[in-house]
Amino acid sequence: MTSLQAVRDQVLYYGGYAQGRYLPHSLAELYGRVVSRLTSIIAIPLPLLSFLALPFFGGSPALVNLVIFGLTWSALVASYEPLTVEFGGTLLVRLVCFLAPALSALVFDCAVPSLAKSIKARGRKQLPTNLGRKKLLEVVVVSVVNVFLAVAVQAALELLTTEVLHLRSNIKVTSLVPLPWTILKDVAKGFALRGVFRYFIHRFLLHTWSTPLKSWHLSWQHSVQLPFSLMATYDHPVVHLLSQWLPVFLPALLFRFHVLTWHVLLAVASLEDLFVYSGYAVLPSSIVLAGMARRADSHFAAVRDEKPAGNFGQLGLLDFVLGTTCNDEADVVDDLQSEAQKHRLEERAESAVQGAMSGIKGEQQPNTSPSSGEEVNSRREDEVDQAGASADNVPGAANDADVDADKDADEDTQQPRQRRSNRRKARKA
Fold first, then answer.
1. 342 φ, ψ to 5°?
2. How far is it, in rounded angstroms, from Cα 388 to Cα 412?
3. Which of 25, 64, 113, 251 would be a feasible disulfide site paired with 190, CB 3.0-4.6 Å?
4. What's the predicted TM-score (pTM) here?
5. What is the SS3 string spanning the chain?
6. Compositionally biased, Basic residues: which spans (predicted)?
């Protein structure tokens, strides 16, 4: 009875504690708590968005914005728990950079199929409406659930590390803002490692070795013949966490990135998945993203036609090096060469260099133009040269005059002789 009474007292105590701290007592209090939570979630990513806008401004305003961002970030970290800052920004990045655009693209494909098929790489065959209403609804639900599942798993790992094991956090949350160069360097490093992890997981665990992961991957994601944006997260939940979420989170965990670096890396990875699986032929980058999207389509087509699978990486560099490019498919080097020929990069580079050189010469000509004193000196030198040339021509003119005088004298001597001969002829006559 004593132990039962103690358990009852503990239940009553924790129930009253939870009711007093967590449960609202009225509808107005419930409304206030909901509005407070929503505003806190909205306020968390504002420093991140202002930081991402810094590269678009140059000069002193960028420095001012950087200082303002640092002060705002320090106030934000001081006002909220590190876990709230980390996962509020993570959830917002996934919503803004992947889930909302992917759902918008799906609505566009279903609402205006006649226009959507004209910008799809494979035309009408790549429209999501070909799946049917039931399958399409399944894809939407599973994709959305997987997005939130990845965020929940990350939160669970963070709580396990900090609250249970009492270790430092997996992602570093500090009031100090890293320099932009440090963020770019860490993002490039994480992006490279993500590509390596994703290639080997996709190739061996999902397509080579006979494991439950392979059968799950083929029966879930490859049940759709051609991809669209939501297909990036449509897979078995375990396969999605292993092949999509873990490769992007593992570099941040190994190097313990700053939370801002983690958010930027997650944003870049989300946008890449959005465009690569979109199936659109019109993409922001015609050199890189177009080839990545085409290789993703070829990967789905090869599995559908029961051909040897290839194109396990998105960028295509490891496929080119290790020889796993799909048959009759252009690799990343071919894409770069064709794009270079298409845009005539060499001719543009030469014309740009020539334009720059001509601009430099045009700037140097006003600087090297002679002054008034130099113009007078040059005129004097020209006059001296002309005088010298005329002096050099004097002997030639004198010689010509002598020759003309000799000719006149000869003619004068010849004329009297001719007169005398004429007189003699007249006398004889």
1. -65, -45
2. 37
3. 251
4. 0.67
5. CHHHHHHHHHHHHHHHHHHHHCCCCCHHHHHHHHHHHHHHHHHCCHHHHHHHCHHHCCCHHHHHHHHHHHHHHHHHHHHCCHHHHHHHHHHHHHHHHHHHHHHHHHHHHHHCHHHHHHHECCHHHHCHHHHCHHHHHHHHHHHHHHHHHHHHHHHHHHHHHHHHCCCCCCCECCCCCCCHHHHHHHHHHHHHHHHHHHHHHHHHHHHCCCCHHHHHHHHHHHHCCCCCHHHHCCCCHHHHHHHHHHHHHHHHHHHCCEHHHHHHHHHHHHHHHHHHCCCECCCCCCCCHHHHHHHHHHHHHHHHCCCCCCCCCCCCHHHHHHCCCCCCCCCHHHHHHHHHHHHCHHHHHHHHHHHHHHHHHHHHHHHCCCCHHHHHHHHHHHHHHHHHHHHHHHHHHHHHHHHHHHHHHHHHHHHHHHHHHHHHHHHHC
6. 417-429
pLDDT digits (tens, 9 = 90+) for 102-155: 999 999 999 999 999 999 988 888 899 999 999 999 999 999 999 999 999 999
Q: Is the pLDDT of residue 376 over 50?
A: no
Alpha-carbon gap, residue 249 to 53, rounded angstroms = 24
Average pLDDT on 250-274 reads 95
- pLDDT tens per residue across span 294-316: 899 999 999 998 888 899 998 88
Per-residue pLDDT band at 289 (split at 50, 70, 90): confident
Distance (Å, rounded) from C-alpha 168 to C-alpha 157?
12
Residue pointed to by tokens 């918008």: 104
pLDDT tens digits, 41-89: 544 555 555 555 555 444 456 666 677 777 788 888 888 889 999 999 9
Domain boundaries, the chain: 32-272, 283-346
CA distance linking residue 268 with residue 352, whole number of Å: 31
